[in-house]
Write a structure and sequence with these properties.
The protein has helices at residues 15-28, 50-58, 75-82, 89-100, 125-132, 146-159, 178-191, 208-214, 229-236; strands at residues 3-8, 33-37, 40-41, 62-65, 68-69, 105-113, 136-140, 167-172, 195-200. By secondary structure, it is an alpha/beta fold.
Length: 238
């Protein structure tokens, strides 16, 4: 799995923190890691973006962006409003391919959800994943409403013939409600893929050293971690 694409079921579901956790677990396993942000929006030229935030938490990873735009909008819209060239899926694939030649693992983080448009032609992160023939990890929210968006994302991936290795909950609450606990069983059912981890809410605010130590415990062995879905469900009363 030299390239792993990471998408979310929407915005603010924890993609960057999950990306950092996957990177930290891979680093702990002795692998070299690069984090590529396909399209960074909502930051000024001199501000750190999501890739740098992942590196701050995870450690010594190579960071790269294909493009960035100042307004916090969908990449295609942000590019148009800024009067700049949009990101093309093939550019994301080429950038990831270059990084893959020099790293054991390349994590490609999308912007928003799987089908957020990069350009006026309708190019998306899904198209970039297709060009790379790369698996796509889905980051989902924990609570009410997540089943619909997760299933829609999973269906789109299957329609395109893309591999979905699993789902990670991007922000698991300290006091989960009934819906969240039930979703531990229902998310893998609707996704047709296993639950591969649950990152605790607020993990992005951890001290980086504590984050790196804890990250493998949030992720399943498929993501180089030690997390066990059955044990987690039992612990949370699911």
């Amino acid at each position: 799995m030299p390239v792993l694409v990471i998408t979310g079921t929407g915005t603010e579901v924890g993609k960057t923190v999950v990306t950092a956790a996957v990177a930290a677990a891979a680093l702990a396993a002795g692998e070299s890691v690069a984090v590529l942000k396909a399209a960074q929006t909502g930051v000024a030229p001199d501000e750190p973006g999501d890739a740098l935030e992942a590196a701050r938490l995870a450690g010594a990873v190579t960071v790269a962006e294909v493009a960035r735009y100042p307004e916090p909008l969908a990449p295609g819209t942000a590019a148009r409003r800024a009067g700049r060239a949009p990101v093309r899926p093939w550019e994301v694939a080429e950038a990831a391919g270059r990084l893959a030649a020099e790293h054991d693992l390349v994590l490609v983080e999308g912007a928003g959800g799987l089908l957020v448009r990069f350009d006026d032609a309708g190019g998306t992160l899904a198209d970039a994943a297709g060009a790379l023939a790369a698996p796509v990890l889905v980051v989902a929210s924990a609570g009410l409403g997540t089943l619909n968006t997760t299933e829609l994302t999973a269906r789109e991936l299957r329609t395109r013939g893309l591999l979905l290795p699993g789902v990670v909950i991007g922000s698991w609450p300290g006091a989960p409600d009934l819906a969240s606990r039930c979703n531990l069983a229902d998310l893998p059912e609707v996704a047709g893929a296993p639950l591969l981890g649950a990152v605790p809410a607020g993990a992005g605010g951890f001290d980086p050293g504590a984050f790196r130590t804890a990250a493998p415990g949030w992720l399943a062995p498929a993501l180089r971690g030690t997390w066990d879905a059955d044990a987690f469900r039992a612990r949370e009363g699911a």
